Amino acid sequence: MSVLAISGALLLIAAQPGAPGAVETVREGGTFKIVFHATSGLDYVDPALTSSAAGWAVLDTTCARLFAYPDKPPPKAYHFVPEVAAGPPRISRDRKTYTFTLRNDFRFNDGTPVRASAFARAIHRTLAPEINSPTLSPGAQHTRDILGAADVLSGKRNTAKGVVARGNKLIIKFVRPAPDFLHRTTTTFLCAVPPTLPSDPEGVSKFPAAGPYYVAQFRPGERVILRRNRFYRGKRPHHVDGFDIDLRAVTPQEVVTRVDRGEADWGYTTAGIYFDPNLGIAAKYGINRSRFFVKPGFTLRMLAFNSARPVFKNNPSLRKAVNFALNRRAIINGASDPRASVPTDQYLPPSLPGFRDADIYPLEHADLAKARELARGNLRGGKVVLYTNSTPLPMAVGRIVARQLAEIGLDVEVRGFPLHTASGAYYAKLANPGEQWDIALALWQPAYVDPYAYLNQLMDGRYAGGTNFTRFNSSPYNQQMRRTARVLQVGGRSRAYGALDVRLARYAAPVAAVDILKEPTLVSPRVGCIVLRPVLDLTAVCLK
Questions:
Q1: Most buried by CB count within 10 Å: which residue of 69, 143, 391, 452?
Q2: Using CB atoms within 10 A of its CB, is residue 475 exposed (0-12), middle (13-18) or buried (19+)?
Q3: Alpha helices, H only, 286-361
Q4: What is the pTM (predicted TM-score) of this model?
Q5: How many CA atoms lie within 13 A of 406 on its CB side?
Q6: Quick one: pLDDT at residue 22?
């Protein structure tokens, strides 16, 4: 991107999505306005706790990480590069020890230099008992396999033996090979934080940050104010002076309406809301033209099987029967507008490198003959409990699924529970071994874009009771997942994961994939420098 100073303003040359080669005149500075729904938008501004798409998008502007995804559109957006790390780490042959050397030019917004201790503290905050009570926090899922992490989680120690910080040298040791660790460093959970930052179960609301921006004010349920870090010397683009975030939208529809009217520059809400016929956004702006964009997403909607319960435990025939019995198109139509997602029978998103479209199960209709053949003799009583979010659309989906599975002899009881973003209560309930669910409607949105996050974290037995809330635990498939994770060559690794994805879905079927959600983005007419990864890259935006 070239920059020319003209009459106190800046002329930026940038290509708009949907308008290749377009040139736009924009200015440096100004305040970017954001709006979120009061109960399903931003959960925290604390890196150790934020686990919503809205929270990740906001903290991405404040975060300085060892490695980061570049502020570029796909496919370059998904190839991470060193940020605070001076270059690639030294990795031991057994892939259990990573040694990083840090750059010396990163500073927090209070002027304090970023040292290795900033990342050591970030790791220890994700493991702090007060953050992880009563269940493991999302951040701990990325650090629990560090040597000594169990002692921190249990409160026996404040620091893990496997984390050593000396000046600009950071050494991290794991109890087992961690082939995906560089991907984990790209998450906001591992943002650099001040070495003395306390661990608060309610989340710290204001603290120095080392990214292009920092949180100047956070009033839960009201607003967040981000301002530019004047000490930032990194390479990320950052054009606006800051962000004013209103957290008080009463409904998801209000988020879209306020952006449509230009009262806000951007907001984040459920994909289907953007296609609400009463709002008429697609008809008004078209898709991928100027203000409304729809890009392939990375969120998997699925029906998860509880492999620890009698009905589905060691019962791949019934799990496959359910996959054949599903009419995915009917489920999608019952959940949202069909333009908001694409049906799938596999676990890796089609836009992820290595994906192989194998046509394992029907996408537009059910194959009841095949489903009944597989279910015969494997129903084990035929009574199952389906958990879902208690809001109207998920409950409607649950009833659709119940009717579809009745065709193969399953009697499905649908139970709805509240899904509260801040507490993750629904997913904590699924991970609780005492809960009596057999099938659960769930969304899987990893914190980083890599096949390991979809297959290993969701289905490897070592993560059972954590990210693997289905408790699928198969020794042969555990070995295959771990062996695939150790493949080092980028192309070879992608192909290996693509093949493993097909095998898991075709033969083991630990979950029934339904669809991959798309990522709609609506912006105000004054927004420029639009980079979609596929969510709007807030750090890169500018104002016309």
A1: 143
A2: exposed
A3: 316-325, 328-335
A4: 0.88
A5: 10
A6: 52
